[in-house]
Amino acid sequence: MYPEDRVLVAYLPKPSDFTVLQEQGWYRIPQDHAPKGLFAEYYAFYFGRRFGDNKWSIRYYAPRLGHELVTRRALFPADADHPQADAWYYKVQLGPLQLLERPIISLQWRRITFIHTTWDRFMDATEINDLFVEGGHYVDRLYATLRDGQVATGPDYQTDAS
Residue 68 maps to which CATH number? Predict the structure, then answer.
């Protein structure tokens, strides 16, 4: 795990979605609503209102192992008559779920579908807004991406660490 590793926080609306995640090790994203950044090294999960006392919080994350494009029918063969049965979904395969030492909470209800953040911000966060914090000690994602792609950044692109 590196500070610049990407974390994609994804919304889990229902406990049944969490059961699939726990028992089958995958998460689904409708192709039509997929965010850029499916290739994040880690996925974390924001629980919706149906999670009772755990609602509006992030408690679990998992490493992304890969993904494939499949129909909803392939994901849920027992629901072959579902109106969206032929819709395309990304089936994101995940490694073992990890419980955070302390949950990342939302101090108020907010509509979240996806949040892109970095590992260092994710590990320091106690509240959802912390996932967006800028600062000298946090990874500059653009700089890290350019560096990892071996793109010369030159003197026009400076970071606080420069």
Answer: 2.30.130.30
